[in-house]
Specification:
The protein has five helices and no strands. It has 286 residues and is mainly α.
Length: 286
């Protein structure tokens, strides 16, 4: 059975018991004053206090059922609880009206008993004297009993208030415990997220170092290649200039020798001409 349903059933049982007690107290108040023994054993304020306590308990049960009704599992149970609340409300109102009427009846009974007692006391005789003494003794005892009863009633009220305050404190502690548990679960979730983030940051830092090393090595290799190409280029150009200068010097020497032979009567046809190009194109190896 659901816990809410069990709580509702317990409230119904307590209501029946408290309702029966309240009716019994109201009936006792209504009959108060009809007999001297009843006045001695119970006082009217004490009976009213008991009736008021029963009505307060009924109001508490009504409030508890009002809180539990919306939490019931089915709509039929909710509607039944609502109807029961309305019935309890009417019963509580009827009890309060009955208590007021019972107090009026008790006061009428007390006035009637006082009138009879006055008539008996004024009658005179030994019986009247003994009755007056008994009334004085009983009045003192009744006053003391009423004082003790009122003190106990105040003590009970203070204890009830302290219990209610303790119950409120326990509910506050339960709510605080729930909030702390929720905060702890959220902290654990954030903690795992922070651990994953830290691992990702570590991986990114290692990757950054590797990327820097790769970039540095690549830049170094690129610089070496550029230096190699530049050095080779300057060496080839220098060699080309030297070859061109040597060829120009050789052609100038041959021209001077040819002019000298013509001047000495040597036929140019007897000498084979060799066409040597002045400049031989050089190919860049690169």
């Amino acid at each position: 059975m659901d816990k809410v349903v069990e709580a509702v059933e317990a409230a119904k049982k307590e209501w029946d018991e408290a309702y029966s007690q309240a009716k019994q107290h109201i009936k006792t108040i209504e009959e108060y004053g009809k007999s001297r023994e009843q006045q001695i054993s119970n006082s009217l304020p004490r009976l009213n206090g008991l009736a008021q306590d029963a009505l307060a308990l009924l109001s508490s049960l009504h409030f508890r059922l009002d809180l539990l009704a919306p939490q019931l599992p089915t709509d039929d149970q909710v509607q039944s609880a609502r109807a029961l609340l309305e019935s309890w409300k009417n019963q509580s109102q009827n009890l309060r009206v009955s208590l007021r009427n019972a107090n009026l009846q008790a006061k009428a009974n007390m006035r009637k008993a006082a009138q009879e007692e006055r008539e008996l006391l004024l009658g005179g005789g030994e019986e009247s004297t003994i009755r007056r003494r008994n009334l004085q003794t009983k009045a003192g005892m009744t006053s003391a009993a009423e004082s003790i009863t009122e003190s106990l009633r105040r003590t009970r009220q203070l204890m009830v208030q302290e219990v209610e305050r303790s119950a409120g404190t326990l509910m506050t502690f339960d709510e605080s415990t729930g909030v702390l548990k929720k905060a702890e679960s959220e902290y654990k979730g954030h903690r795992s997220l922070l651990m994953r983030t830290r691992n990702l940051l570590s991986t990114m830092q290692r990757q950054d170092v590797i990327d820097r090393v790769i970039i540095a090595v690549g830049f170094f290799l690129f610089s070496c290649a550029v230096l190699y190409v530049v050095s080779k280029r300057f060496g080839i150009l220098k060699l080309q200039r030297q070859v061109i200068a040597a060829l120009k010097a050789g052609m100038t020497g041959q021209a001077q020798i040819g002019h000298g032979v013509v001047g000495n009567g040597i036929n140019d046809n007897a000498v084979h001409r060799v066409d040597v190009p002045l400049e031989q194109p050089m190919r860049d190896e690169l």
